[in-house]
Specification:
Blueprint (H helix, E strand, L loop, with lengths): L12 H4 L2 H31 L3 H37 L3 H28 L1 H8 L3 H16 L2 H15 L3 H24 L9 H26 L14 H32 L4 H13 L1 H23 L3 H28 L1 H6 L5 H14 L3 H16 L3 H26 L8 H25 L5
Helix pairs in contact: 2-8, 2-12, 3-4, 3-6, 3-7, 3-10, 3-11, 3-12, 4-6, 4-7, 5-6, 6-9, 7-8, 7-9, 8-9, 10-17, 11-15, 12-13, 12-16, 13-16, 16-17, 16-18, 17-18
Length: 457
């Protein structure tokens, strides 16, 4: 086992700070940054909605591919952060540093993958999804920019995960806020052509997005180099290390597949709905923007507890693992209960920001109330998923997600669409989330017995 370098701390705060305080210190900055990110997503959509309804539909159809970009970036980052935190818990600073450096190499590989998609596959993707020429044209211009300039978001997310994995969650929050605020400021300037600039429409929204991500990436590299004391970031150490990459993706790849499934399923849903009900496509597009205000705090919590549980699992501290899980479940269920009330009591106000027609508003309110039934079940599954990833059990998260998406959500959605009608498809979400919550609880009990129960108190 490697001894720490002279400037490395003997014990990271992940192993000594009181758990309640630690969870707050790790999760709160991430929750704040995620809420800012959710705000930028909504502001972005509100500005786009001022162009016309087809612009909103174009961005909604592009959203699954944007989700896929984030899936690859976040999945790689989760694998890197989980491995790095476990190695820090073991005091193996050399391997922790190698894992962090490999994250940068893998981020560049991901960006190249989506550059190729943006250049050669954006047009076929949209022409296969819709035959509306205006939607197709706007969507292609928007998505091509997001894909071809995705290096910024890959580097930004990798830096955030490195900072989170070393206990520097506040700096991760600062990066997210800088990127999101830059995007929000540039959105109206580029979309509507303020200050003498050309009016770029939805392409302007895409340029604003990648500018914010690129700025955050540059600052992220500087902060990681200056603030990470346990190891050094070096281009030489970014050369591919097969053993480390395999270990990173044992956790990261299932996370990528889980989130990629969301992208694939949403693409299929949009394709099924477009010929039947463009109104439902609009509702889903707006819903996924607004629901992020409910889910982003839970994702922030999740990202905060992964390094805590991973570190203490590496250090073999059972009580700290269980205390972290307890706090996380209480927080997640409380937030999800509040979100359910919000979607039930004021859906008109939520939808009203996007200039809906009277018919769209009526249908949207009904849809929001139905889907929000699933929120409490989602909270259970998300916290379980983060715990599995922290323990190196990424396949368990993948299994739950695959069953939820492919074996429950999509078949129920299709059955409701063709047997009842588009107004009933929203019930597929509560059904799928209930199944996912039950499976998560069962696997969590088994995981506890195999990996946690025998650890010393």
């Amino acid at each position: 086992m490697n001894t720490p370098t002279n400037n490395a701390p003997q014990e990271n705060k992940l192993g000594i700070m009181p758990v309640n305080k630690l969870v707050i210190s790790m999760a709160l900055p991430l929750i704040v940054s995620n809420l800012v990110q959710a705000l930028y997503n909504i502001v972005d959509s509100i500005f786009v909605a001022q162009i016309n309804e087809n612009a909103t539909k174009a961005v909604s159809l592009a959203f699954p591919i944007q989700m896929l970009i984030i899936a690859v970036a976040v999945g790689t980052g989760v694998g890197t952060s989980s491995l790095m935190s476990r190695k820090l818990g073991e005091k193996n600073f050399k391997d922790a540093g190698t894992a962090a450096n490999q994250g940068f190499f893998l981020a560049a590989c991901g960006a190249i993958l989506f550059l190729i998609f943006g250049l050669f596959f954006t047009d076929p993707f949209f022409t296969a999804t819709t035959d509306n020429a205006e939607i197709c044209s706007m969507g292609i211009s928007y998505l091509k920019i997001c894909c071809c300039a995705s290096l910024g978001v890959f580097i930004q997310i990798n830096c955030e995960r490195i900072l989170q994995g070393t206990g520097n969650a506040t700096w991760s929050m600062i990066l997210q806020i800088i990127g999101a605020v830059t995007n929000i400021i540039l959105d109206p300037v580029l979309i509507f052509g303020w200050f003498g600039l050309p009016q770029l429409g939805v392409a302007g929204a895409a340029i604003a997005t990648v500018c914010g991500q690129t700025l955050a990436a540059v600052l992220g590299i500087i902060i990681v180099i200056r603030k990470t004391k346990e190891f050094k970031i070096s281009p030489r150490k970014m050369l591919p290390n097969g053993r480390m990459i395999l270990t990173i993706y044992q956790v990261g790849f299932p996370s990528i597949i889980m989130q990629a499934l969301n992208s694939v399923i949403l693409t299929v849903i949009n394709s099924l709905l477009m010929p039947v009900s463009e109104l439902s496509v609009w509702i889903f597009g707006v819903y996924f923007k607004i629901q992020s205000f409910v889910f982003m705090p839970i994702f922030g919590l999740n990202n905060g507890i992964i390094p805590i549980i991973a570190y203490n699992y590496g250090a073999r501290r059972k009580k700290r693992i269980l205390d972290t899980m307890r706090v996380s479940f209480i927080f997640a269920l409380s937030v999800m209960a509040a979100g359910t009330l919000l979607f039930w009591l004021i859906p008109e106000l939520l939808l009203g920001m996007f200039n809906p027609t009277a018919e769209t508003l009526r249908a949207g309110c009904s849809a929001f109330r139905i889907i929000s039934i699933s929120f409490l079940f989602s909270g259970v599954a998300i916290v379980c998923s983060g715990t599995f990833q922290a323990l190196g059990k990424g396949f368990s998260s993948l299994l739950i997600s695959a069953i939820r998406q492919a074996l429950v959500l999509l078949p129920v959605f299709i059955a409701l669409l063709y047997l009842v009608g588009p107004e009933a498809v929203y019930f597929s979400y509560p059904v799928a989330e209930f199944v996912a919550a039950v499976l998560s609880a069962i696997i969590m009990i088994r995981t506890y017995k195999k990996q946690i129960a025998h650890l010393p108190d």
